[in-house]
Every structure is written in structure tokens, then in C-alpha cells.
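Appendix B: complex inputs.
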Amino acid sequence: MKMLTENKKAAVLSILILVIGCLIWEVSIPAQKTAGELTEYELLTGGGQPKAGVPPPTDVLSKAWEQLSNPFYDAGPNDKGIGIQIGYSIYRVLTGYLLAAVIAIPLGFLIGMSSVAHKALNPFIQVLRPISPLAWMPLALFIIQDSEASAIFVIFICSIWPMLINTAFGVAGVREDWVNVARTHELGPVKTAFTVILPAAAPTIVTGMRISIGIAWLVIVAAEMLVGGTGIGYYVWNEWNNLDLTSVIFSILMIGVVGMLLDSIFGLLQRTVAYTE
Amino acid sequence: MAKPFLSIEQLTQRYPDRTGGEFTVFENASFGVEKGEFVCILGHSGCGKSTIMNILAGLAEPSSGVVKMDGMHVSGPSLDRGVVFQNYSLLPWLSALKNVTFGVAARFPQWDKAKVVEHSTAFLAKVGLAGDTIHRKPSQLSGGMRQRVSIARAFANEPKLLLLDEPFGALDALTRGTIQDELIKVWSDTDQTVFMITHDIDEAILLADRILLMTNGPMAQVAESVEITIPRPRNRTSIVEHPNYYAIRNHLVQFLGQRSAELAGQLGGEGLNSPKTVHIDLKDDTDTENPDPAPMLRAVEG
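Resulting structure:
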């Protein structure tokens, strides 16, 4: 028998775990009582409806097939395809996230380069950073008076900190030698920032961006449960209210898949800016 | 007296020490370097060699004293003064070639890209780097190769003064030898003025026109300026056969081993700190240091 490579072994093992997990799940769902055994009274009181229970994986799979084969349908405010819901969530995450990046990265540069700025701003950062992003929600709703914009603000406020702190850390940690190279080559401050400090700090900055996008994706689900209307978070909550657990499980899986995709985009970016000393 | 090309006048560096007083690294250091000259500075650790280098590079400010190059006051870093650092200081995210073009493009902003690349490639070839190697990142190069890139970057910029801060300190002896040869080769093709720090006496004799000797710190002085009276081109294998080689070498060893400590802090006078010129040449009679060299054995007649 020829030897499998490490990756192939791992893939086989992963599939095995998936199959066994699904089998255990399928088997452990109690069988629904068949309607034929009910008394007339039970039928009259609605006992004939199967009780809501955790759906088996086969139901989730067929739900996924149904949803993913037509992800962008729009049949009114409470019945939109999964693609549309995820699209709304991604739109909010990216808007809040990019706003945060536009502020966090230049500010991080400032904090990293000037120890006065670092000392002056550090107390604010340390107090604001541990605040749960959802705690801002009431204040945001009151001041902004728009649920959509409030959700974006919550994303903004939660994704700004890792980017800010990592940028400052990365910039402050740039080796003195490299800065000296820029100085002996008479590079101006802007040129030094872009040709030496930015590439030197890029791995740390991108790590911060990767952490931020992960947090933003975690927070958007909770934020959308609160603000409602559209988005994957709202969808999960709506299906819970409908007691459609199949849809709930399906959307949980979709949240995971989209989160993984967002993360792997930044993983790729991280690899392109990485360097070894 | 005409001012030399590079003149260091009354340079003093002091740092505050922990007790609130001052710690003097070196005091009233004064010396000159002529255009096209290769000068090495030798001294024990802590005598402030690197500080002098950083001041010449413009990366540090002296407590007092001035550095003049071409009659102009030196302050702040400049492309006129190229530096090769001990730890190579290559930018690790750029390829070897890009590290050189980075410098060349900064030095000659009016050049187009093709010319910058051509010029850089030529200088990399001079230090023996060509082909695929120049497209590798520094992390994929050996220590010797990295220092070659660093030397190529400095020479390609054609600075008025080239500063080498123990460029071979981190290399093994064999690699060091090869790169010293390459350094001589590149240097002899240009009329580059070089000022180099080293710990290695043999390296200094091989490369330098003149060696400056520093006494031990604190309060270090540039005590002597030893002329290397061995004609160029020099070669590491044949240089040892030259009659002056061991005379110079012994003088240097004796200075570093003994007199650098004895003289430490003694020469502190007002302004009279130009190093004493030492000329050792067994072939003529101007030898000031060894007035009575060992007489040759002679056959005595009857």
C-alpha cells in the first residue's frame, strides 16, 4: 500500500469525523411519534403536529440545498434569500471596518512614532477598548437615530482597537537600523513612512486587521439581532421566532463559512506582506 | 596648512551617567582624512569608535566639536556619506537588487529605472553577485552575501565618504578574507575615501593607507596615526612577506595590548590632540618609532 501524504491523511480524517459526527447526530434525534397512534382528542387539540425538535442533519442538508440553489430571492421583508441577508451583513461589516481602518492606521502610525502621542492617548484607548461593542448600541441609536448606521458604528468601534494597537506596536518596533538606512539615504518623512516603516510594520498591522475582521464578524450577528430588519443576525433571530430550527442551524453554518472566508482573505494578505529577517 | 578633505576637530562626546555626573567617552579627538584615502580606526571596545562613526554619518550629534567635509560643516545624515553597518541593515522585504536600487534611486533621482537597475547590477557584479542570486531576499542569502549586497549598495551610491562600521565583524574568517579582497577590488576601481572601524589588526594592515589608534575609554584619545608603508596592490598571502609587515603589526599589537591602557586619559590637553604620526619603514631612515632596528647580520672580515 502506498503511503498517503500528511495532507491526504488529514483530509481523510476530517471527512471521517464529519461523517461520524453527522451519524451520531442523526441517530440521537428521537423519532417523531406517528400521527396514526393518536387518539381523536389528541388530533383535535393539535397533538398531531410533530413536536418541534432538533432537526437531523439530513433536514439541514436539504434546507441548505434549497436555500443555496436560490440564494437571492426576495419575497418581502421577512422572506429574503440567504445570499441577500449575508450580503447586508458583509456590507455593514466592511463599511464599519473600512472606516475604522482609515482612522486606526494613520493614528496608529502617529502613536507608534511619537511617544508623547502614545502616552497622551493610551489612557483613552485602555478605557475604551474593553467596552463591549454592544454597550454602545443604545447611545448610538439615540445619537445617530438610524438602526442601519448604528450597526455600522458598532462594527466601527469594535474593529478599531486591534488595528490601532497593532499598528502602533508595529511602527514602534521597526528596527532602528532600517530607519537609519532611510536617514542615510536622505528620505523625507513621508517617503520613509511608505518605503521603510510601512513594509517593516506591515505584518503586525495586517495581523491587527485580521483580528479586527474576526471580531467585526462576531459582533455583526449580535448587532443585527438587536437592530433587526435585514442581515444574517436578524435572519437567525427571525427563524428562531418562527421555530424553524433547520434554518437556524443552516444559518449558523453559513456564519461560520463566511467568517472563515473573511479570515482566509486576510491570511493571504498576511502571507504577501510577511518577511523573514 | 591646508585643511584635509575630512577634518574632525575637537570632537568630544559626553553622556550623563547614573549618578547625575557626566561620562566622557572621548575628548578633543582631532584628525583628518585625505581624499581617496583608506583609513582604519583601531581600538578596544568602549573607546567610542562607533560613536565617532555615528557622528561622521550624521546619525548622532557630538557634545562638542565639529566635523567638516570639503570645508562644509557636517550635520545630519546625507547621501554624501554612505554607511555600511555591521549587521548589514538590508531591508528584508526587498530583494538584493531592490536593496541596491533603493539607494541608487535615492542618490540619483534624475535617472530612469533602467539606468538605476543597470548601475546597481554592475555594482553587485563587482562584489561577485550576479544571476539569480540578486533576486533573492536577504533571508535567503548567507551572511557573507548579505554584507556584499550592503557593500554594493554603499559603493553604488558613490558617496564622497564611505563609512564602514566593522563590516566583517559578524563573518567567519574565510568569508571575511574573500570579501576583504572584493572590497579592495571595488575600492581600487574608484577613488573612494573610506573610513573604517575594525577590531582586526591584519585586516587593517591589509586594507588601510593609515591606521588611527585609540586609547582605552573613557576619556579615549586618538593617540597615533600609523602609516602603512606597504605598497599596493596588496595581497593577503604576499603581504606577510613584506619586511615592514611585522614591524607595523608588532607596533599595533604592542599599542593595543599595552600602551592603549597606559595612555588612557593621559593625553588630555587643550586642543593639542592631533594624533602623533608614526612612520615605520625598515628600508629608509625616517623611522621615528624604531630608530635602531635590529642590525642585519654581516660577515666580519678578519
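The mean pLDDT of chain A is 90.
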